[in-house]
Amino acid sequence: MATVKLWTDEEVASDPRVKAIFDDIRAVRGSDFVNRFWRGLANQPAVLERTWEQLKLVMMSPGSLDPLTRELIYIAVSTANGCGYCVHSHTVAARAKGMTDEQHGELLSVIAMASQTNALVTALQIPIDPEFQIA
Amino acid sequence: MATVKLWTDEEVASDPRVKAIFDDIRAVRGSDFVNRFWRGLANQPAVLERTWEQLKLVMMSPGSLDPLTRELIYIAVSTANGCGYCVHSHTVAARAKGMTDEQHGELLSVIAMASQTNALVTALQIPIDPEFQIA
Amino acid sequence: MATVKLWTDEEVASDPRVKAIFDDIRAVRGSDFVNRFWRGLANQPAVLERTWEQLKLVMMSPGSLDPLTRELIYIAVSTANGCGYCVHSHTVAARAKGMTDEQHGELLSVIAMASQTNALVTALQIPIDPEFQIA
Amino acid sequence: MATVKLWTDEEVASDPRVKAIFDDIRAVRGSDFVNRFWRGLANQPAVLERTWEQLKLVMMSPGSLDPLTRELIYIAVSTANGCGYCVHSHTVAARAKGMTDEQHGELLSVIAMASQTNALVTALQIPIDPEFQIA
Amino acid sequence: MATVKLWTDEEVASDPRVKAIFDDIRAVRGSDFVNRFWRGLANQPAVLERTWEQLKLVMMSPGSLDPLTRELIYIAVSTANGCGYCVHSHTVAARAKGMTDEQHGELLSVIAMASQTNALVTALQIPIDPEFQIA
Amino acid sequence: MATVKLWTDEEVASDPRVKAIFDDIRAVRGSDFVNRFWRGLANQPAVLERTWEQLKLVMMSPGSLDPLTRELIYIAVSTANGCGYCVHSHTVAARAKGMTDEQHGELLSVIAMASQTNALVTALQIPIDPEFQIA
After folding, report:
1. Model pTM greater than 0.90?
2. How far is F7 from chain C (nearest CA, A)?
3. Does ipTM come in above 0.95?
4. Among A61, B4, C49, D35, which residue carries the largest CB count within 10 Å?
5. Cβ neighbours of residue D30 under 8 Å, at least 6 residues apart?
6. In 3D, which of E44, D88, E77 has the Cα closest to residue A101?
7. Which tens digits make up the pLDDT trace of E10-22?
């Protein structure tokens, strides 16, 4: 259960502003399925709009990181932030963009490694090496 | 300042177990510079050894994710975990492995996007869509 | 399922120290409903007592921040800490204290904004401006 | 030290896109001082632009939460996320918007209270009460 | 539901590398029950192997901290990291190693206390006392 | 630099309520040194008082966990929460209560292990085993 109502397709159809965004989500993704995150955000059309526009820009516009790499980074952040829903949805997205089991295993390994050294560094309170300084 | 002594090269030289690992770090990296993380871990040779062995395996062994992608994931996790030292050292490492300013900008964008939707999902307590279920 | 037993009203009734606190919770809130957090804490009467006393003081005593503002801050912290239960219970509490949908939307926007800039600042490791210094 | 160059006013002046945003920051805030966060983001003009536009919208547009309340929420999130820089800059901003010492004390109390109960709930793994369910 | 398949005993039996580790888990723990964490990790035999070997070393080898104390620390970290599954499994493990209700209550108290002062320190941005300096 | 004034001994002496608590801190600890955390909290006497009373109760009252074990748990939580100041002050406190280098190494090992499996469990979204259920 969510802390807000999750909009059904009928409710979405009754609100032109929300409907326009759902239409765009469906068109851009080439799928009729719209996951619950957007159905929860529909309660706040301004946040819905802003989030979807920014997501398109950040995750789908051409650039120097390929779409799968962006999904791996998304999973890494969502894991460290403990967002189970986000881990689920972006693992599905990464697989849809071609993530192999081998790549998933390496992603898990790097996440586990970083989590471990992050904790060690914090427990030891290592001061930053002057060699890391940007000139 | 750290919560432990940071070992100087002289102190390292006086302890054969620690020295062997520092020699390996220098050989593998092809550089005489050993950063302070390892100098702090030197107080605990077993942890030092295990961490270095695992890091070599996870970050440097051949695999399906290239070394730069692994560094980007490492930065993402370290950022979400708030480990400033780790962000510094792995941003330096990513640049050494070829990260361009454009790639850095896209990494920042994905980290910011994920942090934002992680928080929205948590605030809305969105339940996981059945469509995300692994059969 | 919890990691501890959740006390039923009968079990509460059988322990005078716990019963006194539950009676106070019901009296202060003007409602017979006592949520599961307190039923779990009942296993540790000292912690239960201390937590309830502190909560009354912090959330209900007169002061310069009105009760709704305190709930909004509570939701913000609980979201950033990833406590789903706490997000649920304090969103219900905020609504009971008059939070409108518009206010909820603005709360979500600020939480999302802060989460995003927190991550950017950490990834960039921005040093604190001397202008922020307390004299 | 940051992981990126912090742009001086001269460097800003040499880049029309960055200069336009810095001009707007100065105009909107009515102050010549531009803090280091923006000087670090200047390396990524697209991120700089998007962040500043969103910040204006979220923190400064008219709405149902007053500007000080928004700052208190910002501080709460930044504290839970462990972003020292953000805590500093938004505590300064909150004071500029009228936060009194008494309000600061109450903010600290709520943050401490929530952090504590968040941890207790997580350690006890309290399941969500059906009474919290949105119909 | 997990983001990966949870291996059944039959699937485990069909993969010699995974089977060897499951056999060792059962032998070391003296129980036929293998919890789902290992069944999820089975998809990545290298990560499974490394994690189990390290866990045996860290949690079960003789040392200066007794096994129960190690479990208490594990619960504390898992709580602060918001890992519900880990809180569950290690609370069960701590009880199996003799944790009393009184000890659980004191563990909860310390976790709550630390969470609270961590937040206060971060909100106040207290600089480290020179007296804490390692010579 | 802090976000609040750190009270000097002279300022403390001029405020009877704050002075009484500082006197108690010095008496209980048997030392004239009062660290900066308390000097920052002095701006909010009610929070100062409540925090010190709770700290005495939780960390110093007789119980089933010895004082050193409580400090180890405190360090573990503070590390996972990324509170550098707290890691420093409680590592000093743990050493004062007898923590050996060997114990410190084992503490670090458990923290690193838990951080790593916390992340793996979150990335895999392992559902809780029914065997962990409290009857």
Report:
1. yes
2. 12
3. yes
4. B4
5. none
6. E44
7. 999 999 999 999 9
Between A and B, how many CB-CB pairs are < 8 A?
214
Calpha distance D75→B82 (Å, rounded)? 16
Residue position matching structure tokens 């999904």: A71
Q: Can you say whether the dihedral through the CA atoms of B33, B37, B42, B43 is positive or negative?
A: positive
> Can you give the three-state secondary structure of chain F, one letter per residue?
CCCCCCCCHHHHHCCHHHHHHHHHHHHHHCCCCCCHHHHHHCCCHHHHHHHHHHHHHHHHCCCCCCHHHHHHHHHHHHHHCCCHHHHHHHHHHHHHCCCCHHHHHHHHHHHHHHHHHHHHHHHHCCCCCHHHCCC
Helix (H, G, I), strand (E, B) or coil at A38: helix
- Tell me which chain F residues have a C-beta less than 8 angstroms from the C-beta of B74: none
Do E102 and E117 contact (CB within 8 A), yes or no?
no
DSSP letter for each residue of E37-87: HHHHHTTSHHHHHHHHHHHIIIIIS--SS-HHHHHHHHHHHHHHTT-HHHH
Distance CA E35, CA D69 (A): 46
Contact state of B1 with E134 under an 8 Å Cβ cutoff: yes
SS3 C99: coil
Q: Which two tokens stand for residue C50?
A: 């201390």
Q: Which of A113, A114, A122 sits opposite F82 (nearest CB)?
A: A122
Length of chain B: 135
**Cβ within 8 Å, pair B51-A4:** no
A30: CB partners within 8 A, 6+ apart: none
Residue of A nearest to C124 (CA): A134
Q: Tell whether the torsion through CA atoms of F98, F99, F101 and F103 is positive or negative.
A: positive
Asked if F110 and F76 count as a contact pair (C-beta separation under 8 A), the reply is yes
The answer to whether F44 touches F12, Cβ cutoff 8 Å, is no
CB contact under 8 A, B111 and C124: no
Tokens of F105: 């190494």
| Burial of residue C1 (number of CB atoms within 10 Å: 0-12, 13-18, 19+) | middle
The two structure tokens encoding residue B66: 């290239």
Q: Residue A122: which residues within 8 A CB-CB, separation 6 or more?
A: B83, F79, F82, F84, F87
- Please state the φ and ψ torsions of residue E3, each to the nearest 5 degrees: -85, -5
Nearest Cα to Cα of residue B8 among B40, B32, B31: B40
- Closest by alpha carbon to E123, among F40, F67, C3? F40
Q: Backbone dihedral region of C21: left (phi > 0), alpha (psi from -120 to 50 degrees) or beta?
A: alpha
Q: Which residues of D69-96 are buried (b: 16+ CB within 10 A; e: fewer)?
A: bbbbbbbbbbbbbbbbbbbbbbbbbbbe
- Look at F2 and C134 and tell me if their CB atoms are within 8 Å: yes
Which residue ranges form the domains of chain F, and what is each CATH number? 1-61 (1.20.1290.10), 64-125 (1.20.1290.10)
DSSP code string of C65-82: S-HHHHHHHHHHHHHHTT
Give the separation between CA C13 and CA D12, rounded to whole angstroms: 69
Tokens of F23: 């006197």
Q: Do D37 and C117 form a contact (C-beta atoms < 8 A)? A: yes
Reference F57, options B116, B91, E92, E112; nearest CA is E112
